[in-house]
Amino acid sequence: xxxxxxxxxxxxxRVADALRGSESKQSSKRHxxxxxxRRKISLAQKKRWSKLKSGAQxxxxxRAVSAASRRRMAAAxxxxxxxxxxxx
Length: 88
Known about the structure:
The chain is mainly alpha-helical. Helices cover about 65% and strands about 0% of the residues. The chain has 3 helices and no strands. It has helices at about 1-20, 35-55, 65-85. The longest helix is centred in the C-terminal third of the chain and has 21 residues, at about 65-85. It is flat, with a radius of gyration of 29 Å.
């Protein structure tokens, strides 16, 4: 019974493809990236992975925010929330 259902689905897909003007899903457009471009991307990613695996430090260190800056940011955020509450 399952095989019959699958055959029917395949048949309907072929009919739908014919109505759309294509012969099958395989004839649909593919993304065009050249082999050279794929290779370039692959090599760049492998370089990044090897850098991480070697234990090298990231190029940009994390920036620390001082306690005073945190307090100023929190106060500014609270003021924005209060302003938004007043409007609604």
